[in-house]
Amino acid sequence: MVNLRINNIDVSVEKNTTILEAAKKYNITIPTLCHYPDLHINSDCRICVVEIDGYYGLKTSCSTPVKEGMKIKTNSPKVLNARKTITELILANHDTDCPSCIRNMKCELQSLSRNLGIDTNRFENVLQRKEIDDNNPSLVRNPNRCIKCGRCVDVCKETQGMHVLDSMGRGHDMEITPAFGKYLNDEICTYCGQCANVCPVGAIIEKDNTDTVWEKLHDPNLFVMVQIAPAVRVSIGEEIGQQNGLIESGKLVSAMKHLGFNHVHDTLFTADLTIMEEGTELVNRITNGGVLPMLTSCCPGWINLAEQEYPEILPHISSCKSPQQMFGALAKSYYAEKEKLDPKDIYVVSVMPCTAKKYEASREELSVDGTNPEVDIVLTTRELAKMFRQMGIDFNQLDSVEFDNPFGITTGAAALFGATGGVMEAALRTVYEIVNEESLDDVDFHAVRGMQGIKEAEVVLGGQTVKVAVSHSLANARILVEQVVAGTSPYQFIEVMACPGGCIGGGGQPYGTTNEVRQQRIASIYEVDGKMVYRKSHDNPSIKALYKEYLTEPNSKKAHHLLHTHYNSRNS
Questions:
Q1: SS3 of 488, please?
Q2: 363: which DSSP letter?
Q3: Which of 4, 178, 346, 411 has its Cα between 20 and 30 A from that of 285?
Q4: What domains lie within the chain, and their CATH numbers?
Q5: Cβ 232 vs Cβ 354: under 8 Å
Q6: Which residues of 228-264 are buried (b: 16+ CB within 10 A; e: fewer)?
Q7: Which of helix, strand or coil describes residue 250?
Q8: What letter would DSSP give residue 171?
Q9: Are 203 and 33 in contact (CB under 8 A)?
Q10: Which residues are catalytic?
Q11: Strand 49-52 to strand 71-73: parallel, antiparallel, or no bridges (unpaired)?
């Protein structure tokens, strides 16, 4: 242990602890801007400077380790003046039209300025306006709001291994941009949105589709259906003033009805359907000498990476559409026929934790008979919360309402899709019982759970030991993909999720997503699973009825037409 004093308070912390960490442990606030938990420390902004007796100049608390006997001041006049000056200089090269920014009142720079008492800036604004990059369906990059903190660069390089963003130029001319000032859609960008999630200001945000959804909700000629992903209900509370963790699904449905949606559905239903189709595909590949290992296809960020950088592994990827797209396909076929509606009059909205889902919904091959898109538009968790605020919905005053049929009954296995390892665990529950023709004594596959970057497990199917693996974040996915490319992969089935923690850590989730927050959301996911009446996808009576009434059986000709797709090399 190292003993020191911070603001005349005796502090004792472990060796190699930074001053910032030591202060936090004793509830002493030191403001930060470029620092972000779980990311590499750059000390770029210098907002966190402190004064240390005997040291020349001010030191950054985020990168300076504690030493025995240190005497530190976090709020001396010298420190406060430095912080205020640095913040004013940042504001002088920043678009300060805050009311027009989506991060207004949730902006870290705005909060810092308010806390430092900056009412007027002593420095003239010297911002030279640059073009806004919005030439893709998922993300908007506004360089006029960028404060050059480097968080987006770090998460893109270190966590995702993508290297799409970097710092270019020197001094005042330095900017964060894709190489050679290109647009994001000119780069090998997966639209995962992790850059948007860690940006402290509004420099990178999701493309806002809320105005379009409001317009469609008030169109009397449209039947507007909405589906809600499992990761949304365990995070939306953070955006609407509720406690972290689970929001009662009945109140969420009620709130969606207040917005004006005709039908509200649970994406868990088509997650169960995905397990039936994907599980059957896996069994067929194992028993009939198909291409192995088979890789999951639920995550559009991962699919983007595979198509752009690893087209040689496309035969390894399951042909199943994602649960989002399966729902859209059924809504504009099965449901339209059942309710005698023209598919053109059905408008399908998805609420997803993911910015890449916006791109997925826009893919030409994911349409109904090449005309209508299966999913018309995608909202992120943050956008849904924005609509709730616009409507003035008070969740405490809502009654619980059930999800609409015919997609109302779901299982705990489907809920697991929101967490890393969840697709794998859901698949194993079903595949094990179907192949071995016996019930599982314990449906919990703990080996594929947790925040470890790559997890592996073994399961016996029909007397054969099958090895499986799970990865989350694209940097970890690359490790497993390189094994497949080299022909050295020891696995038969691999789950890949682009975002850290899986969908609960998606790029469209509430700001401030750290590993600590991810763990809380994951715990809520398992809580949902444990409380469900059905915990295995193949036990879902609505899924059984759908096959009996419409699809015949998993992987049937009709199921393939509606629920499966193909992927294309975009390596050029």
A1: coil
A2: -
A3: 411
A4: 2-90 (3.10.20.740), 128-206 (3.30.70.20), 211-563 (3.40.50.1780)
A5: no
A6: bbbbbbbbbbbbbeeeebbbebebbbbbbbebebebb
A7: helix
A8: G
A9: no
A10: 278, 281, 298, 318, 357, 360, 365, 503
A11: antiparallel
Q: Is the pLDDT of residue 245 over 70?
A: no
d(CA 427, CA 410): 15
Report residue 325 as tokens: 């797209």
- What pLDDT is stored for residue 572 in this prediction? 64
Q: Which of 532, 517, 534 is nearest to 234 (CA)?
A: 517
Helices (DSSP H) in 141-229: which residue ranges?
Answer: 151-154, 194-198, 210-217
**Structure-block tokens of residue 496:** 């890949």
CA angle 549–347–408, rounded 5-degree value = 45
Q: Which amino acid is at 474?
A: L
How many Å apart are CA 264 and CA 165, to the nearest integer? 38
The count of C-alpha atoms lying within 13 angstroms of the C-alpha of 414, restricted to the half-sphere facing its C-beta, is: 29
Q: 219 is written with which tokens?
A: 């169109």
Would strands 346-352 and 377-380 be described as parallel, antiparallel, or unpaired?
Answer: parallel
Beta bridge partners of 529: none
Q: Which amino acid is at 38?
A: D
Asked if residue 488 lies in contact with residue 210, where contact means CB atoms within 8 angstroms, the answer is no
DSSP E strand boundaries for 99-145:
139-141
Q: Please compute the mean of the pLDDT values over residues 378-387 and round it to a whole number.
A: 97
The tokens describing 221, both together, are: 């000629």
